[in-house]
Amino acid sequence: MIHIIGAGLAGSEAAWQLASRGHSVRITEMRPKWTTSAHASGQAAEMVCSNSFKSDDPNSATGILKAEMQQMDSLILHCAEATRVPAGNSLAVDREAFSAAVTKALKDHPNIQWHEAQITAPDLSQPTILATGPLTSDPLADWLSAVTGSGRLHFYDAIAPIVERDSIDMDLAWMAARYDRGGADFINCPLDKDQYERFLDALLAAERVPLHDLDTPYFEACLPIEVMADRGRETLRHGPMKPVGLDNPRTGRWPHAAVQLRQDTLAGAHFNLVGFQTRLKWGAQKEVFRLIPGLEHAEFARFGSIHRNTYVQAPSVLDATLAVKNVPNLWLAGQLSGVEGYLESAAGGLAAAFSVDRALHGLAPQPFPPETVLGSLLHYLAHASSKDFGPTNAMLGLLPPIAEEGLDLRALKRTGGTRAVKQAKGSVHRKRALAALAAHLLAAAQPR
Question: Which of 2, 319, 267, 312 is nearest to 133 (CA)?
Answer without folding.
Answer: 312
